[in-house]
Amino acid sequence: MEAERRPVPGSPSEGLFADGHLILWTLCSVLLPVFITFWCSLQRSRRLLHRRDIFRKSKHGWRDTDLFSQPTYCCVCAQHILQGAFCDCCGLRVDEGCLKKADRRFQCKEIMLKNDTKVLDAMPHHWIRGNVPLCSYCMVCKQQCGCQPKLCDYRCIWCQKTVHDECMKNSLKNEKCDFGEFKNLIIPPSYLTSINQMRKDKKTDYEVLASKLGKQWTPLIILANSRSGTNMGEGLLGEFRILLNPVQVFDVTKTPPIKALQLCTLLPYYSARVLVCGGDGTVGWVLDAVDDMKIKGQEKYIPQVAVLPLGTGNDLSNTLGWGTGYAGEIPVAQVLRNVMEADGIKLDRWKVQVTNKGYYNLRKPKEFTMNNYFSVGPDALMALNFHAHREKAPSLFSSRILNKAVYLFYGTKDCLVQECKDLNKKVELELDGEQVALPSLEGIIVLNIGYWGGGCRLWEGMGDETYPLARHDDGLLEVVGVYGSFHCAQIQVKLANPFRIGQAHTVRLILKCSMMPMQVDGEPWAQGPCTVTITHKTHAMMLYFSGEQTDDDISSTSDQEDIKETE
Predict the structure, then answer these.
(1) Gene Ontology cellular component (predicted)?
(2) SS3 for 139?
(3) Residues of the chain with CATH 2.60.200.40
(4) Model pTM?
């Protein structure tokens, strides 16, 4: 019977049996990898949701990290971190499986002390073991720390001092923390606790409280734009939180400057400083918020403003000595040292009023605040084209070099098209109420600061012609003309000078016909017939850093000294 049931070799039933096996193994070879991939993806998404839930509930500011981004050791299990997280406030680093243990075992930076603290002035060190910075030295034996390939040595998350395992003593654990090198920039948790208690008691005498911190105490507030320029803002926020009190660090995309600057009202009069990390547009946003503080009657709390340039042009930061762009070439600690060394100066701010022409025009005039420059012509056209394309695909414009390349492309295009030619026939220009005769121009630029177009000193120019340095605090505007996009390019590479029209306290420009591109501090728009009036608005208190001088600064300074000698 069994022999009868066996398929005869070569029979149709044997072929069907073999085909069935082939189909089964084919399905297994195809479906099994799909199932494994789906299962791994599901597990990964579950782990991600679980980790995000821990991040959301934790008091630490967790950020993802792995072995490839920075080789570190887990502060809980002391093993190499393959996939884990680090706190961008206290610097704690843990493996993914130790996140809950780390939350229970380690406390993050306290922005305020507990109310039951007996002695607010005596704050002990807050030590965390392992992952100390490179080139750090023990505060006891003065030898290098963190040299061994394991979790070793300690770091205080407030003063950033480090100590060896074998040098750590009970006396150090209870020693008072002096907040280290940046104690004059840090707002101590004890100060905020005392302020909170004073406000409950309806007292506002903050000067007495601040006197305990010394006359050199100038607390710093960080306002960073995480979307500026090369998208470095997010990383900078974490580095500043580690060095300062996290309550001093704000992301302006989440907390508007007007709200962040209310922290100044808890500080002594005229003591606060602000570091703006972003482009010229972010700086203007912060200065507008400072003006709003003046309107609210908070003049005594007005801070001095420094700039860490993250944008594309950065002409204002260059004028104030902070450089043409920050790309991480110097550590954040050095940036804080530069802020401490900076000197206070004034910056003129101007009101730009644009009134449209027409018999039935019932709209209010447009008003802008100018810090850098106003222009009509080819450079405004390049900015307008760039702005239009960046609005469509903002992710493609995260590189400073790429942004400048796009500007170059539109400048080359305008050299061939010349969309702004015969500008002198379309506009009338008045300086302090006197009309000025214009030659054949394509563009007019009104300057408040020394730099224009990403690092070019436009007013002083080059060659044997001696012109006084353009100042940003003299209440005067410098007005120049350009003959086209090619002329702008020649000026930027120091092969030509602009056509200098003059200086004035008030500038009035009348666009008689057609549509022309205009811009104020890099914010462009297309404008029809109108009248543009530029008048002085107010002063802003800025911080000038004299440690970084470009070749243009040195040559311009020497030229000015030569002029004084001849006089």
Answers:
(1) cytosol; glutamatergic synapse; membrane; nucleoplasm
(2) coil
(3) 349-536
(4) 0.84
